[in-house]
Structures are given as C-alpha cells and as structure tokens.
Description:
Layout: H1 3-7, H2 12-29, E1 33-40, E2 43-51, E3 64-65, H3 69-83, H4 107-112, H5 137-141, H6 158-172, H7 176-188, E4 205-207, E5 214-216, H8 226-229, E6 232-233, H9 235-247, H10 255-261, E7 282-286, E8 289-298, E9 301-308, E10 313-319, H11 327-341, H12 357-362, E11 364-368, E12 371-377, E13 383-387, E14 395-399, E15 405-407, E16 416-421, E17 427-432, E18 435-438
Antiparallel strand pairs: 1-2, 1-10, 3-6, 4-5, 7-8, 8-9, 9-10, 11-12, 11-18, 12-13, 13-14, 14-15, 15-16, 16-17, 17-18
Amino acid sequence: MDAVSEDLVLLPATRRALSHRIAVAQREGRAPSLVAAVVRGGEVVWEGSRTMVEGHGPDGNVQYRIGSITKTFTAVLVMRLRDEGLLELGDPIEKFLPGTGVGEVTVGQLLAHTSGLAAETPGEWWERTAGTLRPELADVLGERPFRFEPGRRHHYSNPGYTLLGSLVEAVRARPWEEALRAEVLEPLGLERTTAQPVAPHAGGWAVHPWADVMMPEPTEDLGLMAPAGQLWSTTGDLAKFAAFLVRGDARVLSAESVREMRTSATPPEPGFADLGYGLGMQLTPSGGRRLAGHSGSLPGFVAGLWLSEADDVAAVVLANCTSGLPASTLAADLLGIVADAEPRIPEPWRPLREADPVALELCGPWYWGTSAQAVRLTYDGFLDLGPVGGNGRSARFRPEPDGSWTGLGGYYAGESLRVVRRPDGSVSHLDLGSFVFTREPYDPQAPVPGGVDPQGWRGIG
C-alpha cells in the first residue's frame, strides 16, 4: 500500500477515539443529534453521528443549517469577482452600491470584518425573525451603522456580509443564491447545499438549560441577510468544500486565491485566542496548529468546519441545538485526534526535473550584515531563504518571468528578491527590499548601505 492509500485508511484506535469524542460531546452538550466527518488527502476518511433517537442516526446526506459558514461561501463569490478583474479589494462599496451611507468602506474591509460596521442589525434579532422585516439595505444598516472608523480594528459584522451579497447581485445582475449555485455549488458538486431545507434535514431545537426538555426553534428565511447565514448543508458537501479550501479548484478559485483567503487580513483581537481573520475565514490556534475555517450558528443549529493545511486534514461537525454543544471546538478536536495519532506521511523527496542555472547559482550561504543566511533551491523551482542556525526571518520565494523572485510569507511576503550583477556578469549581491545580501559578511566589493570600514576586520589589539 502506498503512502496516499495509507492516508485514506484510519487505524481502528483512531476511529474509536473519534467515535468516543462525538459520543461524549453529544451527551454532555445534550444535542438531539450531531453528525461529523474527517477529511484527509481531499477524501472523507471517517464519518460518525450520535442521536437521541435509538437506531436512527443521521449520515453525511442529512442537511443541517450551517449559519455563518455561509460567509465563507459568499467570500468565495467575491474573490471570483476580484480574480475576474471586475473589482479590487480596495474598491469602496459605493462604487457598486451607491447611496448606502457607508460607501467609504472597502470590499476587503467587509471580507475581513474591519469595516467598523455594527455586529448586528437594528431592531429585532435578525436570526429569529423574517427577512421581510428588513426589505432594504437601509433596514439592515440602520441610522447608526458604524461602531468604529473603517480599517482601524477587527469587529465582526453580519450586516457587512449582507453588503457583500448585494455586491455580488449588483455585479452579476442575478440573485446571490443563483450566483452561488452556478459558480460554486454546481462546479464543486455540492448538490445538498441549499438556501432552503431539502429533505432529509434535521429540525432545529432549543434545549432547556436546566432541564432535559426541549422545544422547536423557528426556521426563518433571512432575506437580505442570507449571505451572512442562510445556507443548509451536509457533512458530505462540507467535506468537499473543506478540500476545496485547501487545494482550490480551477473551476471556482485557484489554490493561490484560497490561500489568500486563509491568510490573516486583520490583527488578532485582544482577549481572544485567535490568529486574526482572513478573507471570509476565521483563523485559530489549536494544539500547536494553525487552523482555518469557520464556525456557524443559528437558532436550533451549531456548526464547525476547520482545516489544517500543514496536516492536510479537515473536520466538520453539525448539530441541531441552539447552544450547549461547542461544534467548532469539537471539529478542531476531531482534526487534532487524526493529525496527532496518524501524522501525515510526507511525499517522497524528488529532485528537480531541470535545474535553472540562475537559481542554482544563488544557492548556498549569504550574509545580511553579519547574519549568516542560506538559499536553497527546492524541487518546485522556488527558493527558500532562512538563517543558518538560530532564529531569524525566513521565507519562500516564487520565480517571476522577469528573473526576480516574490516572497510568499512572513516578513518578506510580497517583497521582491533581485540578483544584482557586476559588469562582467558575476553576481555582486542580492537585493531584498533594500536589504543587501553578500557572499562574505560586509563584502567591501558590494554596495553595502553605509559602506564598509576600509581597514576591514581586526582583532582587539
């Protein structure tokens, strides 16, 4: 059995640990039912469920309401518009939705919840009332839409995603739901993800906090607020969606664009154990890992979807209770169980098919001042730059057609690495965002900023 095949078969002990964890969660959370799935290598490797109804557990085809996981779907639609050149993340919303009164807010700020808009709509709680109570954007935003100056801080805003849904409708000239169906759901094969429940689906329940009794929750059509939390889905569909959020899909969004969604666009919020917020995706630490995904809740339902790119593992949990069962935490736990018990088997080392002589020339030690750095050429044609021993800045660099390289992460993200040559064609130094890297520490033959002492290196005497 090869490494890929092994990754798709969990050990019995791991499967039992997963089953035990959801059983404890369902009992302690007093959820009428829950269903869960774990994805590895882009495939579902485990499914489980628990229910109060003996002998009748839900499966990966039963719909639950997913609440704010809907926001990630809406964000995918907006990123598609960006990738098609129909908008920029820095565009003000006024450009597409004139007259809202919040026109200075940008598309990117709405995606990352840095718009400064209120967390909720004015009036009655929108999650438990009909969308017909808010027929216009003015009803969603209210007379005092801002809580903070745009761009100053992360402040989660449900009305912000209503604006993004309306933006999609304005640019596509079709309803948000139709655009979602045609551009995301159908290409990814998400046949059981819908705006309205389609049988088989779970009913939403409120469980009394101090007694083992319950009552049904109302199911409302959220109207304009739909892009913030309307969708119903299944663990089967969300497993496919999670795999897409790791790898991308050329029919929907590229791997580079979904990686951008998973990259923090905000600073962490003080008092919260998170890593900031991406573009339609929450980021959180868990068990030493960096997870991306989203939590979700609406009256009667809780949901969680998390993925770890490094482990190539994702987990989804859906339950039909208003509170009590921490679906988001449970999903992170299931992911951690698999990643800890059965670490990812790495791909075999392979050499480059053809070495770029220019890139090969750059390999080896370099010095930024007196700091020893090393450049390595990897099998994918990218360059790795990092300190030789000890701590320091490191990054990967992507080759560009003009012969430069672009940083992909950390301090050097987006920065350009260029080779500077002498008149005879030999390499003088590397220029990285004005930093000069030389083959010798403070090479007197290179244009080191501030110059090099003409007496050179010397001892104490």
